[in-house]
Amino acid sequence: MRPGQQLTLSIDHQTDFGYFLTDGEDTVLLHNSEVTEDIEERDEVEVFIYVDQQERLAATMKIPVISAEQYGWVDVVDAVDDMGVFVDVGLSKDALVATEHLPPYESVWPQRGDKLYCMLKVTNRGRMFAKPAPEDIISELFTEASEDVMNKELTGTVYRLIASGSFLITDDGIRAFIHPSERKEEPRLGSRITGRVIEVKDDGSVNMSLLPRKQDALSVDAEQILTYMRTRNGAMPYGDKSDPEDIRQRFQMSKAAFKRALGHLMKNNKVYQENGWTYEKQ
Description:
This is RNA-binding protein. This protein is mainly beta.
C-alpha cells in the first residue's frame, strides 16, 4: 500500500479507536474519525490511503474530489507566503498548489473562497499537491458562445493569467479573454468576476470588458468634481443654483457642463445636494 491509492480492503479487526484493514499482506488503520458510514456488518471497505499527522500510513473513507486522473473544481482555503495556496480536496488534510503553478505576483494569488480547476498528486511520502489544469484540459469544459451573448454580462471563474490578459470560463462554459485595456486592475486567479461581452469570436470564445459602459462611466468633469469634494472631506458649497462665474473660476467649466457632471454623479448615487451644498455619499 502507498499514499494516494484508492483501495477496497478487508476488515481485519476492530479496536476502540477504529478498524484495521488489510489487503492480505499489510494492514492499515481506519480511525473512527475517518469512518463516514456504518461498516460493522461489512467485510470490505473502500478507502483512500494517506499519511496522517503522525507521519503514519492511514486509511480514510473520505474519497478526494480530484485524483491523478480526475480534474475538478476545488476551493482555496489558505495562502502561505513563499509556499503557495492550500485547497480543500475533501480530505482531513488540504493539498498545496505550489508557487510554481501560481502567478509571480502574490497580489493576484487566489484567496480563501476562490476556486481552481486541479488534479491531485500524492508523493510516496504522503505530501499532497494540487496542480491547476493546463489549457488543453480545461478546454474540455468549453462550450461555444452564440451571437446573442453580445453586450450581455456573463459571470465566470478566472483560470489563467498571462502578460497579455486574463482568461476565464463562464458559468455556461464559454471561454472569455480580458485584455489589460478592458480592466482597471488585474483579477485574481480563481476569482469570480462579471464582465460584458464586447466580441464574439469565430472559434466560439468571447472578448470581455470589466469597464463600465460609456453611459455609466463617470465623465472627466464628474471625476474632477468628486476629487475636489474629497479634498474638502466630501462636501462643497456648490450646487445646481451656484453662480456660473463661481463655477467657472473654481472648476474651469461652464455652468451647463457642471450641471451635467453633477447630474451624472447624482444618478450614480455618488452625491446628494442639501441647502445649496453638495455632499459625497458614504
